[in-house]
Task: structure prediction
Amino acid sequence: MNLIYVVSIQAFKGRLWDDIPRGKIVGLIDEEYVVKLLRNLVQIPSINPPGDYNEISSFIIDEIKSYGLDVQIFEHYKDRPNIVCSLKNSRSEPTLLIDAHFDTVPPYNLEKWKYDPFSAKIVDGAMFGRGTTDCKGCLAAMMAATKALVEADCDLQGNLLLVAWADDEWRPKDSLWFNGESYLAKNKLITADMAIFGEPYDLKVIYMSKGRVWFEFNVEGKACHSAAEGGVNAIVKALKLVESIYSLKLGTHPIAGKDTINVGTIRGGDQTNMVPDWCTLSFDIRFSPPLTATTVEQKVTRKLKELKTNVPDFVLKSVKTTQKIDPIECPIDAQVIKALMKAGGTVLGKAPELGGAVSFGDVAEWKELIGLKEFCMFGPGALDQAHAINEHILINDLITATKMYALAAFNSLRSEA
Result:
């Protein structure tokens, strides 16, 4: 059963946005608080798997309540909560969603870490620890930005929706949902016109990502003793399949770069002195517009037909698409993107760079369900630090992101950029 705690949220009373300069909002951001908040988040392990979230979810809930906001908690799976809170105005539209996940991968290889991965130790202007970059830095910055907006004591011309969600890194096998965010969206527990998804992308505004299709192929051969004749080696035949798939003509995107093909796993045969009669391969194909998941599948189907025609004794026992996600792209003149670009001009003195993502997850599948028209990714931390040994984040980037989240919300909900 889903746990749902709902307390009505009163609209904040105060001066209109037009009377509050952006400088005041930035000035209300307590930099020491931002650092302390991230340290607290990192020092509470939220390793996934297994996904023990009781302590960290309680901390996040209590912290948000200390801002004067109430929360809703929705469990998409037993003991796997997603935390939702709103900063509302009497106007129902527009709504800006800002969200980030709070689970992390395990630290692994503890002997290789310079510092305890849950110490949140600060050295030379950087905080070290598991989750500092992926993705607790984003969450801390979003929470602190929300706190500053509350303290600005103003009526938003729209709603700000803050979500901290679970299960980005791993989910139970019997879970019905891609992740906690997907659960909230597909069950319409959240709605939004615009969204800034928190991910560590070096303070770039990420407006698009490649799509991906994962394939699993099972090639069949004929077993016999390795020293005898008459067998059909399924692994050798599978190598022909690898060559064929790698010869696919895909494309290149000016932001996302070259489309990619990767054979990720190969398993086959039962023992060394037998000709293998089976081989299973998996592929990850990433692609940008104008290609779609369907057109990539069609290209692969044509290659399989050519193989069956041109390669003797090639038998494909089965082929399965195990994941299928289309590319996603938001127009760069969207209000939320212009709002972030303007925030960058205020905080950095220049507009941030535009970029492309590794993935937007399954956002393409549910964005229409919640009314999402505009979206992007933005967050502090270098992408190469995600899941890394000695993961760390620059304190300056953390503070910059906090200010930009706050001003982006301000700009978006004033219908100006």
Remarks:
- Residues 45 and 318 are 42 Å apart (CA to CA).
- The two ends are 42 Å apart (CA to CA).
- The chain has two domains: 15-209+327-412, 211-325.
- The longest strand covers residues 315-325.
